[in-house]
Specification:
Layout (H helix, E strand, L loop, with lengths): L14 E4 L4 H12 L17 H15 L5 E6 L7 H13 L1 H5 L3 E7 L2 H6 L12 H12 L11 H7 L10 H4 L3 H4 L3 H7 L3 H18 L9 E2 L3 H4 L1 H5 L3
Parallel strand pairs: 1-2, 2-3
Antiparallel strand pairs: 3-4
Length: about 240
C-alpha cells in the first residue's frame, strides 16, 4: 500500500481510521455529501475491531509517513475491547506506543461505548445511562431512525421466502438494518441523521456528557459515551494546520 501523499494545495482533511465493515464506512463516506465536513478515509481499515490495534498502527504509520502534519482519528466500538483481558492489554499497549502523538494532538482515540450507534442516538436525545450492548442501543434508536429506511426485498431466495411471512419494515430487526449494505448504501439515512441541526446536537451532547462523566470519574463504569464528536468538534482547527 502506498503512503498517502502530502497535500500540495489546500487543506489537509483529517483522516478517519475506523472499525466496522459496513455502517461506519458508509457513514463517513456520506458525511461529505450532506455536510460541510470532509474526511480522508483512506487507507480504509473498516474491519474487525477486536483486532483493531494491529491494523490501526500500520495505517497511522503510513499516513504520517506521507503527511507528517496529518490529524488522525481512530474510531471503534468499545464493547469489542471492554471486559476482555487480552483486548484491554493490547489497547493499553497501543495507547502507550502512541502517547507522544496523543499528547501533541496528532492522534485521537474515538471510542464509543458500546458502539457507534450510541453516537447516532445522541443526535436525538441526550441519554447518559449505560447501554451494555449494541442491541440495547439499536432498540432505543429504532423509534427515531427506522422510518429512515424503506422495506427492501431480500436478495436471496431463502431470505425472500422467510420474509414472505413478515414483509413489512416494522417486522425487520433494526439492528440488522444498520448492518445491511442493501439498506445503507444510498446514504439517505446519513442525510436525515444530520439535517435540522441533529449533528450539531450530537456534538454538543457527546462533549457535555464526557465532561460531566470525567468530573465524577465514572466514564467506563456506569454510562455510555462516545468520542466520535472529536473529528467534528476539531474540524475547523484541523484544516487550518500548516
Amino acid at each position: 500500500m502506498e503512503s498517502p501523499k502530502a497535500r500540495d494545495l489546500g487543506p489537509l482533511y483529517p483522516f478517519i481510521i475506523s472499525g466496522g465493515k459496513v455502517t461506519e464506512l458508509i457513514y463517513f463516506r456520506e458525511i461529505e455529501n450532506f455536510t460541510q465536513y470532509k474526511f480522508n478515509i483512506e487507507p480504509r481499515y473498516f474491519g474487525d475491531e477486536s483486532n483493531y490495534v494491529d491494523k490501526f498502527q500500520k495505517h497511522i504509520d503510513e499516513i504520517l509517513k506521507g503527511s507528517p502534519e496529518a490529524k488522525i482519528y481512530c474510531v471503534f466500538d468499545w464493547d469489542t475491547i471492554y471486559g476482555k483481558i487480552n483486548g484491554q492489554r493490547k489497547h493499553r499497549s497501543f495507547v502507550l506506543e502512541n502517547a507522544p502523538l496523543i499528547k501533541n494532538k496528532t492522534l485521537f482515540i474515538c471510542r464509543s461505548m458500546p458502539c457507534i450507534e450510541y453516537w447516532f442516538l445522541l443526535h436525538f436525545t441526550n441519554e447518559m445511562k449505560l447501554f451494555p450492548t449494541c442491541g440495547k442501543i439499536t432498540k432505543a434508536l429504532s423509534s427515531y431512525m427506522q422510518s429512515y429506511f424503506t422495506y427492501k426485498q431480500p436478495q436471496s431466495e431463502a431470505a425472500r421466502l422467510k420474509m414472505e411471512q413478515a414483509p413489512t419494515k416494522s417486522t425487520i430487526n433494526f439492528k440488522n438494518i444498520l448492518k445491511d449494505k442493501n439498506y445503507l448504501d444510498d446514504g439517505i439515512w446519513v442525510k436525515k441523521l444530520c439535517e435540522d441541526g441533529k449533528l450539531e446536537n450530537a456534538i454538543k451532547n457527546a462533549e457535555e456528557n464526557i465532561t460531566q462523566l470525567r468530573k465524577i470519574h465514572s466514564l467506563e463504569v456506569d454510562h455510555s459515551f462516545s468520542f466520535v464528536y472529536l473529528p467534528f468538534k476539531n474540524y475547523n482547527d484541523d484544516i487550518k494546520q500548516k
